[in-house]
Amino acid sequence: MAEVRSIFPEHKIIQTSIGKVRYDYLVFAAGTTSNFFGNKHVEEEAMPMKTVSEAMGLRNALLDNFERALTCATEAEREELLNVVIVGGGATGVEIAGAIAEMKRFVMPKDYPDLPTELMHINLIEAGPRLLSGMSKKSSAAVERYLRAMGVNVMLDTMVTDFADHRVILKDGRAIPTRSFIWVSGVTGQPIGNMDESHFGRGHRIKVDAYNRVEGLEGVFAIGDQCIMTDDPAYPGGHPQLAQVAIQQGTLLAKNLRRLEHGEELRPFRYRNLGAMATVGRNRAVAEFNRVKMSGFLAWVMWLVVHLRSILGVRNKIIVLFNWVWNYISYSQSLRMIVYAKKAKEVREREALLASTHWGMDLMSKGLEDKKQA
Questions:
Q1: Start-end ranges of CATH 3.50.50.100 in the chain?
Q2: Residue-wise pLDDT tens digits, 227-286
Q3: Shortest CA distance to 310 belongs to which of 334, 282, 274?
Q4: What is the C-alpha R_g of the chain?
Q5: In Å, how far are 29, 96, 301 from 295, measured between CA atoms?
């Protein structure tokens, strides 16, 4: 396992955290990272929710804030600790808002009986005119209705410009006090060193043709969220950044690489839209399958079935299903433990070494130390 840092396509070599590696065919499928739209201060202060570690960090931060709210000295600090601000009204944003709203309703009264839940406010901020812009207006309206009924303050056509002194600063001059500032307002393609900017399109996604080949680079391909393809007639602006797109592109590319080796004609990619779903809580979800659009309990059951099918292994499916049933009946979730993982000294030293070497921007350099000596 290694981290790709730069590419030298003229030599068919990539620079990684463990050294240089030659390739015959190279496939970029590194996905995306949170997009802060150039706002470095927000990037430093906000909590993203793109990876498993970030999700665990978010959970720990929320629970830690609740614990502190019980013993803090001032009402102003308690308000900051209990207020939650979520920026981004896409699927991730509405699902986080719904999950925290259910935590407020079902978990906090039992785990924090001395903490009045009416002091906790959940704010979901979206710069556009509606939530879930990638879905129909009907689904957007249903999700907004569900969230408002759950006590979430939905703020549309509202932009965040900064974060200072534990306050989210809005473009219209208003400020929301909070120490739980969650940023899920878009994504951008994972960066690749030494690749010319002409290879990147909207959202810093790698431009590819109908066969997922990177334009102008021999033997280099890109799939999934990290690429943008404009050759599909049904999606001239690029495909939606969904798991199904990556799965279908990966499946076809594997077959096309075999065809390439046997000198056969490649097949162009055409996305088959299997639908989109989003859940906002117990018995509340929206789902769209071609012309069929549903919301409420039926959509929620469909969401459960689809996600259960995607879990690997029969044993894992049974365990997850049992946990879902138990949580549904008991209104109890295992959210209490605050865990901050500590890396072993060996791992820390190895990561420090890898972070300081193999950063060469040319084929002869070894790392940052060469740049310093120069």
A1: 41-185
A2: 999 999 999 999 999 899 999 999 999 999 999 999 999 999 999 998 899 999 889 999
A3: 274
A4: 23
A5: 33, 18, 10
Cβ partners under 8 Å of residue 235, min gap 6:
229, 271
Asked if CATH classification 3.50.50.100 holds for the domain at 41-185, the reply, yes or no, is yes
**Cβ 268 vs Cβ 210: under 8 Å:** yes
Residue type, 321: L
Q: Which two tokens stand for residue 256?
A: 């096309």
For residues 168 and 85, the answer to whether their CB atoms sit within 8 Å is: yes
Of 107, 121, 123, 97, nearest to 63 (Cα)?
107
Kindly report the CATH class assigned to 4-35+188-261: alpha beta
User: Is the pLDDT confidence value at 193 over 60?
Assistant: yes
pLDDT at 3: 87
CB environment 88-116: b (16+ within 10 A), e (fewer): bbbbbbbbbbbbbbbbbebbbeeebeebe
